[in-house]
Amino acid sequence: MTTASAPRLSARGLAAGYPGRRVIEDLDLELAPGRITMIIGANACGKSTLLSVLARVNAPLAGRVELDGTDVAVIPRRAFAQTVGLLPQHPSAPDGLTVAELVARGRHPHRGVFQRWSAADSARVDEAMARTGVTDLADRPVGDLSGGQRQRVWIAMALAQNPRILLLDEPTTFLDLSHQIEVLDLLRELNRTDGTTIVVVLHELNLAARYADDLVVMSEGRIVAHGTAAEVMTTDIISEAFALDALVIPDPLTQTPLVVPVPGGSHVVADGH
């Protein structure tokens, strides 16, 4: 799949938030099709809010989200879910649901009300579990798994959905460093082999710089920088977005920007989610 044929997701004049509080105001964003975009920023800057509106979980307070130029508000939900998938930050599963049953739920957008489960559905579920390394957990209840195992199962469900755009909010939560790398390698493989557009909210700046084709840096509900890691991961932007004094040097392995905080160089910032 070429980037030319990949669907385009964008925000136009977007305002978003909650009753009595706007977190995002007048935001424009064009997500590069067929690429990996990482969204970074300090706590409470609006990253998760933006992702939830892009995924149509929450409606915008103003402006619009467009899929290939069409307002997503007029696209049937099943059709939208066949193109755009979301892994939220804190997903939950019903008690007693097994891994295989949860991953199979990713096929729901592709099946009509009276459509029987097909061999293609089974193959997609099996492939998703194999790619995330959870095949051996298929019969285990999701609630019995460790945090890291659960996270990989949720990613498997998102893969089973087979979306052309996949949005993930902190997909490496609860994972140790080696498993974080495995997940990010998996997402990069999905992007490179399937042409899936990947959009990830991530806290770890150096991993974001290493894996991103594009970086979106947010601060206080606005985008302060958008471009390649080399273009936007600068000392000035790090200071503005994170209230942090840092050196930015080349990663010795990948030559991508590596952020090294200066001891005692952080400023007081408001805590939040």
UniProtKB/TrEMBL annotation:
UniProt-recorded name of the protein: ABC transporter ATP-binding protein
Membrane topology designation: Peripheral membrane protein
InterPro entries assigned to the protein according to its UniProt record, in alphabetical order: AAA+_ATPase (IPR003593), ABC_transporter-like_ATP-bd (IPR003439), ABC_transporter-like_CS (IPR017871), P-loop_NTPase (IPR027417), Siderophore_ABC-ATPase (IPR051535)
GO MF term set: ATP binding
Keywords: ATP-binding, Cell membrane, Ion transport, Iron, Iron transport, Membrane, Nucleotide-binding, Transport
Domain of life: Bacteria
Domain ABC transporter span(s) in chain numbering: 9-245
Listed PROSITE patterns: ABC_TRANSPORTER_1, ABC_TRANSPORTER_2
Organism the protein comes from: Microbacterium alkaliflavum
Keyword Ion transport: yes
Main location: membrane
Subcellular location: Cell membrane
